[in-house]
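User: Let's play a game. I give you a shape written as tokens, and you guess the letters that built it. Ready? Here's round one.
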């Protein structure tokens, strides 16, 4: 996510605060302090590797891999410390939402399902996806973060835009955890492969690579994936890459070569060919209108 370059407070309203933090040159063992407001939910996306987090109000410690996230509820105002022991860049994206906004949004009194969602949020059941492991961001989450960071709207249009994107992020979180519950009952091959691709589509991966890394026969991968999603593994990878490329292409600050690399293409020519095949125009022509 090389276009995540803005830092500091990106948005603030009575109910929502969005912060982008990037410490590019941290001293060894230096710590950043993150504040959680009283009776608030935090969506915290870790965008650099090996970030350690320690909450000061309880004996909670995490080690985050790159692109992991958590949805955390804090009943009281609290602080957490984040640091990297290897003098690596510390980069994270935090969305704070107050309790009353979430309560009104979910309306737990309207149905048991809604009440269960809020209950799970309050009890921090959206922190570990499985085996005490924070979940990884999906492609859609990456795209929404890019949109929030690059947005230039002001006033009421900005507020409506931000709120719409946060609602979409929450939906994606709930869907991801619902899929987790379904997989625990019956972990199908096609779901495992889709999850692997969603997390690695920007790399140079093929069905053979997926097979060797997951231990699943590559012929089974191809057959079951196409039966479930009506497209081949290669077509799905290409679709994710092109969706991301189209989102990035509108940002004039990012070179076409950077977009190609970010979307998993080693050579710009291959990226341009795939882009034109998908959208009917070259990246340059779409960018310049």
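Assistant: Ready! My guess for every position:
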């Amino acid at each position: 996510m090389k276009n995540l370059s803005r830092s500091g407070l990106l948005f603030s309203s009575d109910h929502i605060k969005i912060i982008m933090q990037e410490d590019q040159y941290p001293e060894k063992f230096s710590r950043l302090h993150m504040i959680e407001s009283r009776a608030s939910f935090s969506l915290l996306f870790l965008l650099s590797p090996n970030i350690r987090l320690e909450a000061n109000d309880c004996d909670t410690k995490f080690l985050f891999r790159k692109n992991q996230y958590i949805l955390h509820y804090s009943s009281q105002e609290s602080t957490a410390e984040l640091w990297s022991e290897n003098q690596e860049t510390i980069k994270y994206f935090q969305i704070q939402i107050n309790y009353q906004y979430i309560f009104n949004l979910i309306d737990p009194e309207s149905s048991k399902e809604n009440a269960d969602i809020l209950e799970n949020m309050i009890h921090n059941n959206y922190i570990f996806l499985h085996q005490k492991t924070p979940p990884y961001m999906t492609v859609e989450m990456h795209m929404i973060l890019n949109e929030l960071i690059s947005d230039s709207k002001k006033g009421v249009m900005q507020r409506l835009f931000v709120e719409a994107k946060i609602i979409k992020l929450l939906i994606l979180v709930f869907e991801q955890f619902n899929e987790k519950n379904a997989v625990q009952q019956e972990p199908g091959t096609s779901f495992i492969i889709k999850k692997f691709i969603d997390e690695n589509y920007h790399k140079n991966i093929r069905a053979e690579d997926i097979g060797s890394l997951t231990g699943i026969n590559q012929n089974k991968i191809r057959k079951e994936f196409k039966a479930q999603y009506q497209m081949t593994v290669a077509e799905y990878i290409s679709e994710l890459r092109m969706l991301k490329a189209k989102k990035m292409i509108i940002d004039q600050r990012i070179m076409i070569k950077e977009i190609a690399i970010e979307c998993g293409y080693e050579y710009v020519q291959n990226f341009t060919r795939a882009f034109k095949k998908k959208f009917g125009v070259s990246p340059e022509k779409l960018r310049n209108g």
